[in-house]
Amino acid sequence: MIKPEAQIHIKNLRLRTYIGFNESEKQNKQDVVINAWIHYPAEQAFDTDDVDNAVNYRTICKEMIAHTENNRFLLLEKMTADLLELCMTSTHVTFAKIEVAKPHALRFADSVSLTLSATRDS
C-alpha cells in the first residue's frame, strides 16, 4: 500500500514590505519573493476527498500575505522564521521550508535570499 506525502509549493509569491535596517529600507517598502514548501501525509485527504484532511494552502498563503504586508522586519531571518511558523501551524504538516528573497539587495546580484526549514517531531 502506498503512503504518499503531499508536497505543496507556493511559488514566487511577490509581496512588498518594510525589510532592512538602513534608513532608506525603514522608510520604503521593498519587494520580496517568497517560496514555501509544505509536506504532509496525503493518504487521508485522497481517501476521503475531505478538505479537513488536507492542508489548506489558500489559508496559509493569505496568512503569509497579511503577516508580510502588515509588519516591519529588520532581518530576513526574522521574517523567514515567522513565515515558517505560519506554515507549521497545521498539525498535518510534517515538514516546511521557506525561502525569502530580496531582489536587487546587492549590487550586481539578482537577489539575496535566506532559507529556513523545520520538521515536526513525531
TrEMBL record:
One of its GO terms (molecular function) is dihydroneopterin aldolase activity. One of its GO terms (biological process) is folic acid-containing compound metabolic process. Residues 8-118 form the Dihydroneopterin aldolase/epimerase domain. It catalyses: 7,8-dihydroneopterin 3'-triphosphate = 7,8-dihydromonapterin 3'-triphosphate. Its EC number is 5.1.99.7. One of its GO terms (cellular component) is cytosol. Keywords: Isomerase. The keyword ATP-binding does not apply. InterPro entries: Dihydroneopterin_aldolase (IPR006156), FolB_dom (IPR006157), GTP-CH-I_C/QueF (IPR043133). PANTHER family: DIHYDRONEOPTERIN ALDOLASE 1-RELATED, DIHYDRONEOPTERIN TRIPHOSPHATE 2'-EPIMERASE. Belongs to the DHNA family. This is Dihydroneopterin triphosphate 2'-epimerase. It comes from Marinomonas algarum.
